[in-house]
Amino acid sequence: MATSRPSPLSAEANAHALSAPALSAALRKPQAEPEVLRELMRRRPTRLRETLEEIVADPARPAELRTIATVGLSGLRDSRSTAVLLSAAKSGDPALARRAFAALGRVGTAQTLVELKGIKAPAGPAARSLAFARSLIAYRHGLTGQKLALPRQAVVTPLDEARAQRLPVARLAARPWAALKPALGGADLTLAPTERPPLEILCGRERLLLMPNPALDGSDAAAALKRPLVAAVLMKHSATLARWYVAEYVFAHPAPGVAAALIGVRPTGTVVHSGSVVADGQGLRLQLQALDSPLAAPTRVSATLGTAGGVALEARVEADRSRNRNQARSPRPVAAG
């Protein structure tokens, strides 16, 4: 009687079974498997940055491998890699350039912004990634001249109070936060983790972490809002990929009539939320609402800033997006500060 043969191990399983020296040897092959590099990135050895830089900088390497290495450099959040990433951004390969732009947005310095302003992006998604990288660097470093505005004719979807549900929001306790930090791995936190644990938001089966900028998560919020800044980073957990990733950046900048204008942008460069921070007799009040687009359900987030107790937040959302009519669009860069 014939017996069935065991199926071959997947490339991922093969890579997982390799020792550290064997992984390094496999990566030196001209046609190294992408799974080998992903496994090395997962283990995060001591010289991982140098290895990734070597792969990104080598034009003889397969484009897919260089792109994966670029993503890995982005996750390390190390500004020492900007020179290699800038070279990749100018490579002419649209996929590699797009990943390099995204990485530079997360780790780039003020000088990197100057370099990016001199780069003409390839057509397509890479152009949007370049524009977003410029904005992210500017807001991270409090630089004027790269302010974002809502797309023309942007419309906020009004919240139907009768159908909206209040989401559970709570600040993580110190011990659960300490246990969660390692699971975040190479996720791009930009501003976090901070000493104060983040806010956990539960939305149906989705688990979200809101990382407020440390400058807003205390008593100095009013002073911090006098310059552009990344007000918060929203992270989401993917059960499918078993990892955390950045779902949205909330940018803030001074604006007429309010303490600050707010604009929520996904890492892809599309805008999903808008709002403002206003000052009243009770302190600073934040309100953020979803734009009419398929990317966000009708939402209203309210928060109190500038207190010693940190950000106090309430979120209400509708599950039904059927009233949304507009397409998602990118925010507009405004030349003047």
Largest sheet entry: 11 strands, antiparallel
Instruction: Let me know the number of strands.
Output: 13
Termini gap? 78 Å
Mean pLDDT: 85
Count every helix, treating DSSP H or I runs of 4 or more residues as helices: 11
- Specify Rg, calculated over alpha carbons: 22 Å
- Enumerate the strands of the largest sheet in spatial order, edge to edge or round the barrel: 2-12-11-10-9-8-7-6-5-4-3
- Strand-residue fraction? 25-35%
Instruction: Tell me the overall shape.
Output: globular
Low-confidence stretches: none
The tally of structural domains comes to 2
Helix/strand/pairing category = alpha+beta
Describe this structure in words.
With 337 residues, the chain is α+β, with helices and mostly antiparallel strands. The protein has two domains: 46-141, Leucine-rich Repeat Variant (Alpha Horseshoe), CATH 1.25.10; 149-334, no CATH class. Helix content is 33%, strand content 25%. It has helices at residues 11-17, 20-27, 34-43, 48-57, 63-76, 82-89, 94-107, 110-117, 125-140, 174-184, 221-224; strands at 147-149, 165-166, 169-171, 199-203, 206-212, 229-238, 243-255, 258-265, 271-280, 283-290, 299-305, 312-317, 332-334. The strands form two sheets. The chain has an eleven-stranded antiparallel β-sheet. A two-stranded antiparallel sheet has the order 1-13. The longest helix has 16 residues, at 125-140. The protein is globular and about 65 Å long. The N and C termini lie far apart (78 Å). The relative contact order is 0.10.
